[in-house]
Amino acid sequence: LLTREEYDNTVRDLLGDDTRPARAFPAEPRVLGFENNPAAHQVNALLVAAYLDAAEAIAARAMVEHRDVLFGDCRSQTFDRLRCAEVFLQRILPRAFRRPPTPEELDSFRTFLMTTAEKEGPDTAVEWTLQVILQSPQFLYRFESGVPLTETENVLTPYEIASRLSYFLWSSMPDDALLAAAARGELSTPEGLAQHARRMLADPKARDSVHNFFRQWLTLDRIPTLEKDTAAFPEFTPEVAAAWREGIDLFIDELWSGDATLRSLLTSRSMYVDQTTAPLYGMSMSGDGFMRVDMTPGTRSGLITQPGLLAELAGPLSSSPVKRGVFVREKLLCETLAPPPAGVAVTPPDPDPGLTTRERFAEHEANPACAGCHAKIDPIGFGFEQYDALGRFRVTENGKPIDATGVVNGAKDPVLKAPFDGAIELGERLAASRQVSDCVATHWFRYALGRVEAPADKESLDAIRARFAESGGDFRELFVAIASSPVFRTRPAPKEAP
Questions:
Q1: Residue 46 burial by CB count (10 A; 0-12/13-18/19+): exposed, middle or buried?
Q2: Closest CA to 162 of 149, 146, 179, 140
Q3: Residue 147 in contact with residue 154, Cβ under 8 Å?
Q4: CA-CA distance, 467 to 3, in Å (whole number)?
Q5: How far apart (Å, rounded) are the C-alpha atoms in residues 440 and 88?
Q6: Number of helices (H) and strands (E), helices first, in the chain?
Q7: pLDDT (tens digit, 9 = 90+) per residue, 43-77?
Q8: Nearest 5°: CA angle at 235, between 234 and 237?
Q9: What is the tens place of the pLDDT at every residue in 169-213?
Q10: pTM of the predicted model as reported, rounded to 2 decimal places
Q11: Dihedral through CA 238, CA 239, CA 240, CA 246, nearest 10?
Q12: Residues linked to residue 456 through DSSP beta bridges, in sequence order
């Protein structure tokens, strides 16, 4: 089932409608951070009603604003039913379905269109037919049945592969070139998929999927709704939160348009501020919009020191070693942390004007019920203590010097085992870590396929991870490796009912 992001992008590319109607749809359930898992994202009554409302509005706009898309050269307001009806169906159905319609489908839609035209008039007939198309399973779902390859595996058809590739790299429908490649059988080999993946990655639409991934992976939707204690932080406003969110988007844009590597992600000194956020970080600027600045050496470096992310990984009143430590463990090391034992309080220690956050959280180490898990979390989170709840750099807290030393206890990668001092040094270690490289590749694999990896994926996933590492952490090479892997062209065969 198309996600909200995919629905909006598909409507944009199909009809030219950029109103993003799916923002009103119910949110998708997330599985390991991602919204496109078909086992979790399923239709419900609220979504059906939303589809109806959206289809009616989109079709009405199309008849007024996008007649050229619907009819091509057949744009007469009088509407020649025999010619223009066929033009409309031949133009829209193959693109809406992401494959040629079957003769039965074409006949069914043609009959509905012509019958409605006789009763309601030609324009109403086209509008209603477009509503039906936008609510059809062929539009709302990406079908991946495939054909039998082995007893346990099906290979996807060329048009199914085209859709899988397009929704991975563009978060949207295939373009005409990709559909034509599917028709010619060019997507059935690793070489063909790699060639078209590279073409698509050079298209501006690839930015949509990159942002879609980072939005979900980093839970960036939380940032505009963050709440901070305004008595302690009178500088905080909803405009600041919105600027944090946009600043991270601009950071990701710069990454994607330049050296799109894992090292750049984790060590780039770029930061974007506007008039609302610049004063928070000791800067001044005039004029509207955002300004790119280089982070001050010794204070920031890379994604993990972006102010908006640090503010997200904090509490309303103070920093949060737990949130920041969990982020590194789960998002960058792909480690699953057990939930707190039943009956153990999970409320952070109360602020104490006489203690630093690190001193307050020493309680976790002293409490046997907490020590086991927090030994994996807090020593990483303490490395971020130079950043307060607004992501501002600091060297003291409550009049005491900040201790930002930390350690990744139980690290599998030797490069992560030595103690570190501060988030900048941690970021350098993470950027050099094969465990981090493999973890990021795994997250992209899950995003691309809309599911969690299975034992049968091991060979393909190992090869994808190796290619990413060998490329120096080049994200474009990672995407090509995923798209050209055997697992990208197949799916498990359906199990027979007992």
A1: exposed
A2: 179
A3: yes
A4: 29
A5: 44
A6: 22, 9
A7: 999 999 999 999 999 999 999 999 999 988 886 55
A8: 95
A9: 999 999 999 999 999 999 999 999 999 999 999 999 999 999 999
A10: 0.94
A11: 110
A12: none
